[in-house]
Amino acid sequence: KGEVECLIKLFDTLVAESSTRSAAVGLDRNVFRDTLYSTFGMMDDMILDRVFRTFDRDNDSCISVVEWVEGLSVFLRGTLEERIKYCFEVYDLNGDGYISREEMFQMLKTSLLKQPLEEDPDEGIKDLVDIALKKMDYDHDGKLSFTDFDKAVRDENLLLEAFGPCLPDIK
């Protein structure tokens, strides 16, 4: 109860600090992103946008106090099952229930550091996508279903954030 009350107080403080019109109903994308950046050091624009969309359950482009508390509950203290579902939603860019080769490529492209090599950096990312599919695509259909992702993460927990950091680190 105390933690929930603290989250609600933090939410009210963030809403009060933001000067946007939508602040009356909750946190807009910019305030939310700034908070994740300053509190958890999350910087990847694509991942921040996907985390926002995952928190924003009713798709009204605003995080309500209920969405805030429920989202942070999974984000900070979620069970493995809840975090697997959350990460899958973050990575399923088009919401079709699969993480496609293209979606993996897009996320890895934005989350990996560019290496100053002569070869095409996209080739290395394509290789990583191939490796991920080989390791995680149990039904061999060329994309990851939730079942594939769930099984892969349960077999190897490090794969939970295989396509970019979307959870806070331990500290």
Automatic annotation (TrEMBL):
Pfam families: EF-hand_7
Keyword Calcium annotated: yes
Swiss-Prot/TrEMBL keywords: Calcium, Metal-binding, Repeat
SUPFAM superfamilies with a match to the protein in the record: EF-hand
Keyword Metal-binding: yes
Molecular functions (GO terms): calcium ion binding
CDD domains the UniProt entry points to: EFh (cd00051)
Cross-referenced InterPro entries: EF-hand-dom_pair, EF_Hand_1_Ca_BS, EF_hand_dom, Recoverin
Domain EF-hand: 43-78, 79-114, 124-159
Protein name: EFCB1 protein
Species, as recorded: Rhynochetos jubatus (kagu)
Classification lineage: Eukaryota, Metazoa, Chordata, Craniata, Vertebrata
Gene: Efcab1
